């Protein structure tokens, strides 16, 4: 199961060394990239960040990516739906969500949202248990006379 884990940002110390070297005209972006074993895009990114924000500190991870589609009111709706119909599949929940809120949602996003809001689904067994002894082949039917 592969998790999407972002690599750690480059250290502040390295960022400052690259910026200082560039400010001291110790080489071009490409030369500094080679010297510090970085890509030229990374060095350019450090310089751009300094120009735009006045700092070379890495961005914070907050606000990265898409906002969750399932907020508190929507989680409450899903809880109510599942209380009435606990056997709904993720796909069926997605369809109900789309009808109610006018937005599509993938089954994986639905699953993440249910987990985030600790909404559990108690599904019934999909097969009917057999009432026959193990190894029996007659499936509970008796053949013959009484």
Automatic annotation (TrEMBL):
Polar residues biased stretches: 128-146
Residue stretches of biased makeup (Basic residues): 114-127
Residue ranges of domain Transposase Synechocystis PCC in the record: 10-133
Pfam families linked: HTH_Tnp_IS630 (PF01710)
Domain of life the protein comes from: Bacteria
Region spans: Disordered: 111-146
UniProt-listed InterPro entries: Homeodomain-like_sf, Transposase_14, WH-like_DNA-bd_sf
Record-given protein name: Transposase and inactivated derivatives-like protein
Record organism: Nitrosococcus halophilus (strain Nc4)
């Amino acid at each position: 199961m592969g998790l999407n884990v972002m690599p750690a940002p480059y250290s502040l110390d390295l960022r400052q060394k690259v910026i200082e070297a560039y400010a001291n005209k110790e080489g071009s972006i490409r030369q500094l990239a080679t010297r510090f074993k970085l890509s030229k895009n990374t060095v350019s990114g450090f310089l751009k960040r300094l120009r735009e924000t006045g700092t070379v500190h890495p961005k914070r991870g907050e606000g990265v990516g898409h906002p969750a589609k399932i907020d508190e009111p929507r989680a409450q709706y899903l809880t109510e739906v599942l209380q009435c119909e606990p056997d709904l599949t993720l796909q069926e929940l997605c369809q109900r969500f789309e009808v109610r809120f006018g937005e599509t949602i993938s089954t994986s996003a639905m699953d993440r949202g249910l987990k985030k809001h600790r909404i559990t689904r108690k599904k019934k067994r999909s097969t009917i248990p057999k009432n026959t002894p193990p190894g029996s082949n007659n499936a509970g039917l008796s053949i013959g006379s009484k």
